[in-house]
């Protein structure tokens, strides 16, 4: 019998955590593209060997995480390590980082925004699906959201310069927003690599051989006080948000929770809302997938009706302002609230988007002494709880079955129809900030208004599907090729003109020229078959005419402008008369 010794097993594949060695670069728009093909995104199926693809993806995502954190640092956000509560990384001691401004900046801010990330993502990453494609490092992470907060807080900031890739703030003491990012994903600690990581990164760690199983997770690999997602959220609330050395006692706390992070937060609030929800001023959810029957706490249900909104995947609308669902008996609850003293006080501001004169400054500092801050905080808490109590007793929301937990809105343009991409959809982040600014007008007595429910339009019954051999296929192909050409030209524009990218740029230029020739032939074919609409046909004819003029420029000589002679009773150009032999 033969046996294979461990030393003779195939080696575990490796890949360098270096963008250039992996064959990628970051273009001017912050997109990760291939050096050889600057219009192509990351390709996971690099090899037929799944393990190599897995290792290579992890190496690539390590580079992506570094790019995100580098840009976050330029905006004033640093790593705060838990449970040590230090901005310096502990050496060989289990810890998990979150993102937050320096303590001296954080505790001065009047308003705090807290992001509870999805439990499957790395710190600062919103959706790898977006980050590795057109959205890039800024749109697929927290960077653009942080920049929107900064932009809304100052009229002197140059927005075009701020949203350039890699741009940061100049005065971190005054311009850094109070933005805290929880880390529900990286809750496993590797002493070998001395860092916290997700379960996906854990299975991608180097092994003895390609045949060995992943390293076994023991109790030592869990981080004290942050064993799982729910415990991590509780730790941040208790030791960061409620820590008067980090956050002012009278600061307003606005929370955004995404997908599984939202589900864990709601589960925690359902268990003890007084303990964990007393500091939350308003809550925005993104694809939580939590139904009303899963929640039992009446205070939490009232809070969700009064001070929360959710955005979910919606096929019939791509407008984040469209309300697609409301909780049962919600209108009665709002009517009861409007008759109360708090409701009458808030009637003038509830439900209205802040105008230019009501703009909220997210960089505003709190200047009240500690004693006054404590008193104000207690008064606001009592008003907050009183409003929730009134809302709880005003309806039978505790016993009524309803799938909707709060006013629910459609997501923006979400080409993947994925829950993880709801928060990164265009329009959702501004809608959430608008909601928070509504609450900030009157945080002590805010109540969601009654929203008109969006009704999708009925499809027309007069539509006739085209035949399989219809010439409309030529028009569809033409549109697809035009979109492809636009992407390639944008990629060429965004690719830096550097020596290492010269070969890739030249290849892309040749492919663009080839595709332009294909488009010309396809446009003529579509025009001849009549598959283009009237407006499109006119555009194609105009383009063809312009191209012909440019192509024939200088080849033809204009006639008829020479000296005139009398011919048949009229003055005619001499050259024309001579040309016909007269």
Automatic annotation (TrEMBL):
GO molecular function terms listed in the Swiss-Prot or TrEMBL record: siRNA binding
Protein name: Arb2 domain-containing protein
Entry-linked Pfam families: Arb2
Domain called Arb2: residue spans: 16-315
GO biological process: regulatory ncRNA-mediated heterochromatin formation
Keyword NAD: no
Organism: Sporormia fimetaria CBS 119925
Gene Ontology cellular component annotations, sorted alphabetically: nucleus
Keyword field contains Coiled coil: yes
Chain coiled-coil ranges: 498-525
N-terminal signal peptide: none
Key words of the record: Coiled coil
InterPro entries: Arb2 (IPR048263), Arb2_dom (IPR053858)
């Amino acid at each position: 019998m033969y046996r294979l010794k461990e030393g003779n097993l195939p080696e575990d594949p490796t890949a360098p955590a270096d963008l250039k060695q992996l064959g990628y670069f970051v273009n001017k728009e912050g997109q990760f593209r291939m050096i050889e093909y600057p219009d192509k995104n990351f390709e996971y199926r690099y090899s037929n060997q799944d393990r190599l693809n897995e290792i290579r993806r992890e190496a690539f995502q390590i580079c992506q995480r570094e790019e995100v954190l580098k840009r976050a640092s330029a905006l004033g956000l640093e790593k705060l390590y838990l449970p040590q509560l230090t901005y310096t990384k502990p050496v060989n001691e289990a810890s998990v980082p979150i993102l937050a401004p320096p303590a001296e900046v954080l505790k001065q801010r009047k308003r705090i925004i807290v992001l509870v990330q999805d439990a499957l993502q790395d710190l600062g990453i919103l959706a790898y699906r977006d980050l590795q494609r057109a959205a890039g490092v800024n749109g697929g992470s927290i960077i653009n959201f942080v920049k929107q907060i900064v932009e809304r807080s100052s009229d002197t900031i140059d927005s075009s310069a701020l949203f350039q890739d890699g741009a940061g703030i100049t005065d971190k003491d005054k311009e850094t927003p109070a933005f805290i990012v929880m880390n529900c994903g990286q809750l496993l600690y590797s002493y070998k690599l001395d860092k916290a990581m997700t379960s996906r990164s854990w299975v991608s760690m180097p092994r003895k051989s390609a045949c060995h199983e992943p390293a076994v997770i023991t109790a030592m690999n869990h981080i004290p006080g942050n064993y799982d997602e729910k415990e991590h959220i509780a730790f941040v609330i208790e030791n960061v948000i409620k820590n008067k050395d980090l956050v002012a006692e009278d600061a307003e706390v606005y929370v955004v929770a995404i997908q599984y992070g939202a589900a864990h937060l709601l589960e925690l609030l359902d268990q003890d809302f007084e303990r964990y929800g007393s500091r939350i001023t308003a809550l925005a959810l993104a694809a939580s997938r939590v139904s009303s029957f899963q929640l039992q706490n009446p205070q939490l249900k009232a809070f969700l009706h009064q001070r929360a909104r959710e955005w979910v995947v919606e096929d019939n609308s791509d407008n984040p302002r469209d309300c697609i669902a409301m909780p049962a008996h919600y209108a009665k609850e709002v009517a009861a609230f409007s008759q109360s003293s708090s409701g009458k006080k808030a009637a003038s501001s509830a439900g209205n988007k802040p105008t230019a004169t009501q703009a909220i400054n997210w960089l505003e500092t709190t200047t009240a002494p500690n004693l006054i801050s404590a008193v104000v905080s207690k008064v606001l808490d009592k008003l907050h709880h009183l409003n929730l109590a009134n809302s709880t007793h005003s309806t039978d929301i505790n016993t009524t079955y309803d799938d909707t937990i709060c006013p629910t809105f459609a997501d923006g343009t979400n080409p993947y129809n994925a829950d993880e991409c709801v928060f990164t959809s265009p329009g959702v982040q501004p809608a959430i900030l608008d909601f928070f600014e509504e609450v900030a007008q009157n945080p002590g007595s805010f109540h969601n208004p009654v929203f008109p429910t969006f009704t999708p339009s009925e499809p027309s019954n007069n539509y006739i599907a085209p035949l399989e051999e219809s010439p409309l296929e030529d028009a569809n192909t033409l549109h697809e090729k035009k979109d492809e050409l636009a992407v390639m030209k944008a990629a060429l524009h965004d690719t830096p003109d550097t020596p290492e990218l010269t070969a890739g740029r030249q290849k892309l230029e040749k492919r663009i020229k080839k595709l332009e020739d294909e488009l010309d032939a396809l446009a003529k074919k579509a025009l001849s078959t009549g598959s283009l609409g009237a407006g499109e046909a006119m555009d194609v004819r105009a383009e063809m005419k312009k191209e012909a003029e440019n192509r024939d420029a200088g080849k033809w000589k204009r006639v008829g402008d020479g000296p005139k002679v009398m011919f048949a009773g009229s003055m005619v150009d001499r050259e024309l008369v001579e040309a016909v032999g007269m």
